[in-house]
Amino acid sequence: MNRIEVRSREKERGVALVLVLGLVALVAVWAVESANEDWISLRRAENMQLASQSMLAAESGLELGRKILKEDDAGVDSLDEDWAQAMPSFPVDDGEVTTAIVDANRFFNLNDLVDANGVPQVKSVMIAKRLFARLELDAGLVDALVDWMDRDGTPYGPGGAEDIAYMDKHWRVKNAPLDSLSEVLLIKGFDHDVLNKLKHVAIVRPHTGITPVNINTATKDVLMSLADGITEQNVDGMIAQRKDTPWRTVAEWSSQTPYSVWAGRINPARLSTVSDAFLIQSEARFGRVRWREEMLMGRSGKKLQVLTRRKIAATQ
Hints:
Elements: H1 3-70, E1 90-92, E2 95-103, E3 108-109, H2 122-134, H3 140-149, H4 192-198, E4 202-203, E5 213-214, H5 220-225, H6 232-244, H7 250-254, H8 259-263, E6 271-272, E7 277-286, E8 289-300, E9 303-315
Parallel strand pairs: 3-4, 5-6
Antiparallel strand pairs: 1-2, 2-7, 7-8, 8-9
Helix pairs in contact: 2-3
C-alpha cells in the first residue's frame, strides 16, 4: 500500500469519526431537550393537581366560615364572638387551610357616596372626607371618587374628575358604583398607597342606601369620621367599654354620657349593633401553590346569602 492510499484511508477514518461525534452530540442534545420537556410536562401536571387541591380546600374553608355564621346569635354582633376570633390553620391531606371572618359593618361603604340614581349623598361625602383626612389622605380624592360613580358630567368639588381628566387613559369614568375596592386604582389620584390605607377602614358592597356601621366592631378611624366634634378620648373610651360589655342597642349606647353629646349628630340609620354582612376569607396552601378566595355574605336573621365572591390571589 503506497503512501497516498494510507493518507486516503486515514482521511476517511477522520471523516467517519467526525460524523460519529456529530451524531453523538445531536443525540445528547435531543436527550437533554426531551428530558427537559418531560420535566416541564410533569411540573405542569403537578401544578395543576396542586392548584385543584388548593381550590377545593379553599372552598372548604369558605364553608367552615359559613357554618360558623349560621351558628352565631344574630341578635348582637361584637368582637368577643366566635366568628371574630383568629382561627388556626387546619390540615387537609398534604396541605393546610386558614379561614378568617370579618364583619363588613366595621367599615365605611364607599358605594354610599351616591344613591341608587347616581346622585351624590352630601352627608356620606362629608364622612368620607373626614375619614380620608384621618388617614392623612387628600380629601379631594373623595370628589374624584364621587365623579367616578355619579351619573352627571359635572366635576364634583375642587378635586372632581370627569371624563376629561382621563384623556391620557384607555378608559373613562364608570358612572356606576364600585365593584371592588381595588377598582379605585383606576380613579385619578388613587394609587397602591391609598388603597392599602383604605383596606383597613373601607369596603365596597352592593348599594342598599345607607350602610349601617356597627358600633361594637367599627374601627377608631371610622367612628371618629361619623360626625364633627368626636374626640379621640370619647372613642378610646367607647372601644375600651365595648370590650367588656358590647351594646345591645344603639339607644343603650346613645343614652350614656359622653356619647349622648354627639350621637344626635349622626343619622340613626347609620348606626347598628348588628352586622348584616360578613367577609369570609379562605387561604389554602399545597406545596408551592397558594389559593386565596373571599366571599361576602349577607345575613338576615339566620338566613345567609352570597353577595359577592372573588379570587384574591393564586400564586406558585
